[in-house]
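To illustrate the input format used throughout this study, we show a single complete record. The first block contains the structure-token representation of the backbone; no residue identities are included at this stage. The design step must infer an amino acid for every position from geometry alone.
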């Protein structure tokens, strides 16, 4: 509101003139009142006192006098004037009842000459209190002829200003124009507001006329320049915009809202393609506004900075403008990408071009962005992202310019990408497959097969390796395809198929020059070994070890030495076997206890009992050895076979007491019983035979025990005792294929045909019908397996626990392993740990021991016992004879344990080893953890680079891809790169197939919306 100074002063002077005249009349009239009472004189004195106080601007005292007069002379002729002055004083004092008093006056004295002035004063009161509707209502009742010329100008201006505030611009303009007729106090203000209205009406010529009038007054000299500039801008007279604005600046005026004026000046330079001057004023204006403006202005500021070679400044503006969802956002994203390129920031440029390529406002910008997007992704090694961008670009009419370059980039990307599905789809879409394409097909299918193999999908891997072999252009790829087919079959224990695949490797490389061929020798050796063709296995293991003995990369050299020695042992070349076992020990084999056991065993076979005992005793020194009970039994067996029954009894007794759960206990009992019998210790012999039948009724030793018991009892003349044990044996070992056997076989067939629910019902029915018999442990085991396959874990646990409770069952170890695994799957980490620890104690072979170590490693990690995690990880890695997947899993957990302990350096070493070993899910997690370490250290760019590598190398693991993009967005937010963060999250929402990942991305996107809203002004004041 413009408060017009002096208006009330003029009104007051006018009133004083009226008061002087009235006062003169009163003085002339007083002599005629000589007969009036003293009271009347007193009342008049009060009225006159009020006039004098009013004249001296003492409105409070004046009001008090008039109110006293009103009370003493309610019927006086001067009462109307007294009430008028009372209201006037209240108005001048800003009293709350001024409005009420004026309204009462007008209502009580409608025909009084002062009523018109009362409406004028009442309008002023409303105006002063910003009650514009009431102002208009009061002023409209004033008769203009009752006002002086100055008062009329005042009334019209205030009417115009009231209409202006009510947005009734036509009425406002009509009243403002009245004050423009002649020079008056309100002329400049009226011209200012009239010009403002006419600008909005786009009547620029009239607006310019009015504003030029206002500009002549000091009050508006520094106010109207932005408005006049706006007029020239609206007329698109950019030369006038520049000349006028520059003249104002040259005069050194302290222009209000100079930032708006600078924006228009900058835009004028922009349209004239004078980008350096445009950028100068865009920057100045934005600095005044704290960097906030519309996306259109931010785009222009960024564009002019780009054209001026100020790429860092361009980025700061364009990354805000690129958030616009209209055409401005597409243009800004494109030039943002170009600016990042000039700053050699290719990762950020990729995001900018990707954003521009998704928008269709300008097709040329869209496809040009696709070209840059594909090319930059290729240069950054993001081949799977390069392909779709370049392919889409190639489908456009814009592609002709770069067709040859794009075709080359697409082809090379497919050779290097892990997105093999897209590569195959591309190849299959080609109408003609040239030799180059066929070579590409071989490599792509090979990569896909390798990914399937690493993911444990061996059947699909074999199928895809066979596709790769359709075009055997590259020899090494062909050799590796056959080799990995052999590996897949070997894992599936399909040994004949594995053997044929390995032999194909040898046939394709008769000169044995490839390392793949050497690896195939190792695989072929194992295939023959497991087929028990030891002579054939021997030749391959010998070839393999001979080649690797002096090789720096020894692959599985030490393990191959063990198998070579085993083959010599199996073919009874004992001396050679011993020498190879000793060679394995010298080579640092982690299975030294196995080598010593085998050497002891061979010496026992060849009759060298002292050497046999020496080597077997070395094994028994380590109670945690998986061969501990084997060595104890073999040492006792040597004494037994040499007729040293007393020593044999001692050693068998030691085994039975030390290793009560050992699988050798039944045999030890048999041989101890025989030893007792040979020493005429009949009762001890009978007790051992009975112990076997009581505790191992289903074991193969039970039959021998029954015959031995019969013989000893007969010799002791105690044959009557035999019948009870015979009956017990027959009960648990029924002869022939009776109905129970048939039903058990039928239930197992249901299990093997994967009809798990039907198998569960059949096994449970068998247990109800037949209860305890020789198959009870096996029934419970397969019942547990059926529940496990059906994911009924609680019931599976009960079944396996039933197996474990049965003494001396051969299904014990398998059941304990399953109990450990199921508890692991259910998150029962402590229970899982306990079962894996039990499995470690009862392991009867290295495979079971490895399984126990792996389980313990994971269980200790999940229970927060990181030192124990590392201990078992290092034990596994120290053995070395395991699959690549096992190695990766072990390295990953070791790294995670070190990370949890705060040993970042060790953790990173293990994670890098995991990443470098194989491209499997463990590698994906390790890569992600490396990125989180960088983030925690504040190295956000390094974190993102690690995550981009994850996306390129582990594209088939959707969960880790989704998590990586979420972390990339978090890094961008920490880097204050809101545009990059939003673009990344939008990409996740568009592409991720995992609902949880998408939901998290949407939540993060909402969180950062407020960041961008604070940076952008929504309403633009300039034209496009």
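Output of the design step:
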């Amino acid at each position: 509101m413009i408060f017009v100074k002096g208006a009330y002063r003029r009104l007051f002077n006018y009133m004083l003139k009226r008061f002087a005249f009235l006062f003169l009349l009163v003085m002339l009239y007083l002599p005629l009142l000589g007969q009036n009472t003293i009271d009347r004189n007193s009342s008049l004195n009060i009225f006159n006192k009020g006039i004098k106080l009013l004249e001296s601007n003492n409105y409070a005292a004046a009001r008090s006098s008039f109110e006293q007069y009103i009370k003493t002379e309610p019927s006086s002729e001067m009462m109307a004037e007294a009430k008028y002055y009372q209201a006037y004083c209240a108005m001048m004092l800003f009293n709350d009842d001024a409005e009420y008093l004026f309204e009462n006056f007008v209502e009580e004295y409608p025909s009084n000459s002062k009523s018109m002035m009362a409406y004028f004063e009442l309008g002023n009161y409303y105006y002063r209190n910003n009650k514009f509707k009431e102002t208009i209502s009061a002023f409209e009742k004033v008769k203009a002829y009752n006002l002086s010329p100055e008062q009329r100008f005042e009334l019209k201006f205030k009417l115009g200003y009231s209409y202006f505030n009510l947005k009734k611009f036509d009425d406002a303009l009509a009243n403002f124009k009245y004050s423009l007729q002649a020079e008056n106090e309100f002329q400049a203000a009226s011209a200012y507001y009239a010009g403002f209205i006419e600008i909005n009406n786009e009547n620029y010529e009239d607006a310019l006329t009015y504003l030029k009038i206002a500009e002549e007054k000091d009050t508006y000299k520094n106010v109207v320049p932005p408005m006049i500039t706006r007029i020239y801008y609206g007329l698109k007279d950019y030369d006038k915009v520049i000349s006028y604005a520059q003249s104002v600046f040259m005069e050194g005026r302290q222009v209000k809202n100079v930032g708006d004026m600078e924006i228009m000046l900058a835009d004028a330079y922009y349209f004239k393609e004078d980008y350096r001057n445009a950028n100068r004023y865009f920057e100045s204006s934005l600095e005044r506004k704290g960097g906030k403006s519309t996306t259109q202005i931010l785009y222009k500021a960024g564009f002019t900075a780009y054209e001026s070679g100020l790429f860092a400044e361009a980025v700061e503006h364009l990354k805000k403008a690129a958030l616009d969802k209209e055409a401005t956002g597409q243009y800004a994203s494109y030039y943002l990408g170009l600016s990042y390129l000039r700053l050699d920031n290719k990762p950020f440029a990729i995001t900018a071009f990707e954003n521009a390529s998704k928008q269709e406002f300008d097709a040329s910008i869209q496809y040009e962005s696709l070209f840059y997007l594909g090319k930059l992704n290729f240069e950054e090694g993001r081949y799977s992202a390069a392909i779709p961008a370049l392919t889409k670009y190639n489908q456009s009419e814009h592609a002709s310019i770069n067709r040859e370059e794009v075709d080359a980039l697409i082809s090379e990307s497919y050779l290097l990408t892990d997105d093999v599905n897209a590569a195959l789809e591309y190849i299959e879409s080609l109408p003609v497959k040239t030799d180059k394409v066929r070579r590409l097909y071989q490599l792509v299918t090979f990569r896909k097969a390798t990914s399937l193999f690493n993911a444990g999908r061996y059947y699909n891997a074999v199928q895809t390796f066979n596709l790769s072999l359709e075009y055997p252009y590259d020899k090494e790829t062909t050799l590796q395809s056959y080799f990995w087919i052999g590996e897949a079959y070997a894992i599936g224990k399909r040994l004949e198929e594995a053997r044929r695949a390995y032999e194909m490797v040898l046939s394709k490389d008769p000169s044995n020059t490839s390392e793949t061929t050497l690896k195939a020798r190792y695989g072929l050796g194992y295939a023959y070994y497991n087929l028990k063709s030891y002579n054939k296995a021997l030749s391959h293991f010998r070839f393999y070890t001979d080649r690797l003995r002096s090789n720096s990369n020894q692959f599985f050299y030490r393990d191959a030495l063990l198998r070579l020695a085993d083959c010599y042992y199996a073919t009874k070349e004992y001396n050679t076997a011993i020498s190879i076992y000793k060679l394995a020990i010298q080579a640092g084999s982690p299975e030294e206890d196995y080598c010593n056991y085998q050497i002891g065993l061979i010496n026992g076979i060849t009759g060298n009992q002292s050497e046999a005992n020496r080597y077997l005793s070395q094994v028994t020194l380590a109670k945690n050895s998986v061969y501990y009970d084997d060595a104890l039994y073999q040492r006792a067996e040597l004494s037994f076979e040499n007729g040293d029954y007393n020593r044999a009894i001692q050693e068998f007794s030691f085994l039975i007491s030390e290793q009560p759960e050992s699988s050798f206990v039944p045999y030890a009992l048999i041989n101890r019983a025989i030893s007792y019998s040979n020493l005429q210790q009949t009762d001890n012999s009978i007790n051992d035979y009975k112990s076997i039948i009581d505790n191992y009724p289903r074991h193969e030793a039970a039959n021998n025990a029954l015959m031995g018991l019969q013989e000893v009892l007969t010799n002791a003349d105690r044959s009557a005792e035999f019948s009870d044990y015979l009956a017990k044996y027959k009960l648990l070992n029924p002869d022939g294929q009776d109905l129970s056997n048939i039903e058990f076989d039928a239930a197992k067939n249901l299990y093997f045909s994967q009809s798990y629910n039907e198998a569960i019902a059949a096994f449970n029915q068998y247990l109800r019908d037949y209860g305890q018999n020789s198959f009870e442990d096996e029934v419970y085991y397969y019942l547990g397996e059926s529940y496990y396959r059906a994911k009924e874990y609680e019931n599976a646990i009960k079944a396996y626990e039933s197996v474990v409770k049965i003494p001396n069952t051969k299904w014990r170890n398998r059941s304990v392993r399953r109990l450990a695994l199921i508890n692991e799957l259910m998150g029962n980490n402590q229970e899982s740990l306990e079962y894996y620890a039990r499995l470690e104690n009862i392991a009867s072979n290295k495979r079971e021991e490895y399984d126990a170590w792996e389980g313990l490693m994971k269980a200790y990690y999940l229970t927060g016992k990181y030192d124990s995690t590392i201990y078992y990880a290092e034990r596994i890695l120290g053995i070395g004879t395991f699959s690549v997947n096992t190695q990766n899993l072990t390295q990953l957990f070791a790294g995670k344990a070190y990370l949890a302990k705060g040993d970042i350096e060790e953790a990173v070493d293990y994670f890098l080893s995991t990443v470098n070993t194989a491209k499997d899910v463990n590698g994906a997690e390790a890569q992600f953890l490396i990125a989180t370490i960088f983030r925690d250290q504040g190295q956000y760019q390094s974190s993102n680079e690690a995550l981009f590598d994850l996306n390129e190398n582990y594209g088939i693991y959707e969960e880790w891809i989704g998590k990586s993009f979420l972390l990339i967005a978090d890094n961008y937010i920490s880097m204050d790169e809101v545009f990059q963060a939003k673009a990344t999250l939008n990409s996740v929402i568009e592409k991720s197939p995992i609902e949880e990942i998408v939901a998290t991305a949407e939540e993060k996107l909402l969180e950062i919306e407020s960041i961008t809203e604070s940076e952008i002004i929504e309403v633009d004041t300039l034209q496009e």
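Structural context for interpreting the output: Residues 7-29 form the longest helix (23 residues). The chain has 55 helices and no strands.
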